[in-house]
Amino acid sequence: MSDSTSADEKYGWVPSPNGRGTLDIIWSCILVLVTCTWTVLHINVPEPDEAFGSKMLRKLRWAVWTIFAPEDVMLAAALHWTSARISKREMNSAGISDWTIAHGFLADSGGFMLRTPDFPPFPVNSRGVLYLVTKNYIEVPTVTKAQIEDSSKSDRLGKTVALTQSIYLVCQVIGRAVQGLEVTCLEILTLAYLNCALPTYYFWLNKPLDREVPIYIDMEVPISTVLREAGDIAAHQYRDTPLDFVEQPGWAAWRRRQRFSHFFGLTKRPLRRVPNDYVCLPSFWVAVSTWFFTTTHSAIHLAAWNSDLPSQAEAYLWKASAICLLAILFSSGIVGVISLTPGFDYTITTLGIWEKRTTKPSAWHDWAIDGPGTLASILYFMAKTVLLVLSFTTLRWMPASAFKTVEWADFLPHCWKQ
């Protein structure tokens, strides 16, 4: 009878156990990491009729890049934002008052495709649109900001959920630190990614998300006429599109190295889409602000300095990698800011792929900064890989306090707990 009675017992509200498991830790961090490396991405408009697999592969490549270099993706977002703001200012100054930052983002992401009588269709960015409009070759595109936002696949509910999950992780880490509970390396790593993801969300807030189809602009004037009337500035062979003489000065300072210029489907000329890493030069304050977040991203890893890791070797590896990451990103940020000052004329590269070349080709100007920078890029990827691996391997053996949950009631005023 006692067994039957026990089986028939009913309960009201039953609190969760006062603890958490390893899977709880992994799952909560993975949700935020997906937000930081996939949901945050705003990829440019693909080529017309591009295969779904090709588009997904491109986004996957950028997601992998975000895992290894979230600060670079944040910088790209900041420079896209800078270009869109410049576009709005210049268009408004030209009397085009309806042009917004959203229009600038759309143009710079390949959202406008120019069709001419004598040339295959190619994307035209915001500087190209401004030039063609002011020269009366085309009319101002009639798309409105509301139409741009409506065509974007932005999921506000999804972003709200992601933001809520991220805020919860921040509160969880702070609460655990205040109450003296162990914070895992994975949670610290996730917090570091979040430090870059939040400003990236801000910079790309007005950029169309996952737009599939460009808006076609028909121009009756042949490209040959445009180039002839432009004069000597358009006499050189173009690199990407016939409007390079207008578009390239805006984002030619930082370019892929020549060996990477035809990678990942960029074999056709003129280009049929705008690559996601085509960016303009940052302003001084954008450079400083992104440097701050970059340095903070690397410094957060040092929060695990005194963590109780499974072995002494893993503790040394974590500390060495965190220090290496901080030193590299701090110093490269300083070089990046200094490179904006007048008189700086040295070749510098970012992670061995993007370069800003000197106008004084010599061994000194080519390698004085770029040589140490290339070595730093190798060390950077090694350190980042070690931190990623240790974040998961150290979960195999943790102190008991790592599985205790935060007593949120302890943060309430005493009178509220009576």
Automatic annotation (TrEMBL):
Regions that span the bilayer: 25-41, 316-340, 374-395
Keyword vocabulary terms for this entry: Membrane, Transmembrane, Transmembrane helix
Keyword Transmembrane annotated: yes
Lineage top rank: taxon: Eukaryota
Name of the protein this chain belongs to: Wax synthase domain-containing protein
